[in-house]
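Exercise 7. Predict the structure of Polymerase/histidinol phosphatase-like domain-containing protein from Desulfonema limicola.
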Amino acid sequence: MKFIADLHVHSKFSMAAAKNFDLEHLYIGASLKGIGLIATGDFTHPAWFAEIQEKLVPAEPGLFRLKDNISKQCNKHIPVSCQNKVRFILETEISSIYKKNGKTRKNHNLVYMPDIETAARFNGKLNALGNIKSDGRPILGLDAKNLLEIMLESSGNSFLIPAHIWTPWFSVLGSKSGFDSIEECFEDLSSEIFALETGLSSDIPMNCRISSLDSRTLISNSDAHSPFFIGRNANIFNTELCFSGIKSALNKKDINHDKTWLGTLDLYPEEGKYHMDGHRKCGICLHPFESIANNSLCPVCSRPLTLGVLHRVEALADRPPGVSPEKVPHFQYIIPLAEILSEIFNKGPKTKTVQRQYDLAVEKLGPELDILINTPLEKIADTGIFLLDEAVKRMRNKEIHISPGYDGVFGRIKVFNPGEINIIKQQRKKK
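Solution. The predicted structure, encoded as tokens:
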């Protein structure tokens, strides 16, 4: 069975998360995007875990669905064209801050559990070690290897995936507090790590420059803190819709991996807020080669630059740019539909103008990701939405303009040249 999955999201109990980020809105958001499997996020938080138990019921082995009465109410907010079954997988993100090999380490890891009972045991063990109530993504003074041990003791069927592995501040390979290899972090348990999350600021080609990552599946998720961002990065499976099927598909050692794992859908990594080197206060954004030439100091204030994901990849890469392993995982760049409409109509992506056009598009064409990837351009044109077909064509052909992100500033991806939309409007008026 082919389906799209977003395996890393949060909940209303996470810091800086939307107040409406509940299971109902996870379901609605997944439906509008065309996602068949979505993570619950934050199952370690007691109040959220209680909601999971209250509102979800078992579906296929190891997966869950909304109770019928709840999903029926949710479907009132979803066009018929987007209504489909949505499944949930138990997932949480743990922030570990600890000392190892004489250095403070800060990394985030994703944990997946096959059932409520196992998740409850795992939560109980973490609760004895630290505060899991203060945030949906708890901060624990727990070595990542020990976290993996606790998870495996809870259930050998569960699995752990290091999150956004290149983010400077909180990741396993991050420049500020990470390691130089997966093995350095997880030691003798490294074989249990069969997948890695690339994060918003990196993509498959960047990760393929590090040969030590070749043996692990590279996944891509939204890390959404609100319904709006669900599915901005996602994964494509072609496997049995169940916990064990997903786990097997992610493991390259599985004999069917090439058939069951179909790759990722990704934002352009330049859109991530830690892609390039830079200094936000001075408005400085530099390519790693430029920052290296300047001793990694800001050319304006002479303070240290925040070194981005691309810099860190350059530091650890043992392959030059453009050189990849013999078999490169499939990936496809996308630009969220709301961002495309925002550019076309020159309005914010969350404005009523853009929301009306978005609603029209999904009502007539179906889920967002299908529109971006598969829907024929002629059919998109038939909606009457100004320039949407042209914008999607350019996105698919990678005819885009990039202003990369740096030091916490999100990058911008545009499909039209400055002033081009107004010129097209004037030309069409004359006709």
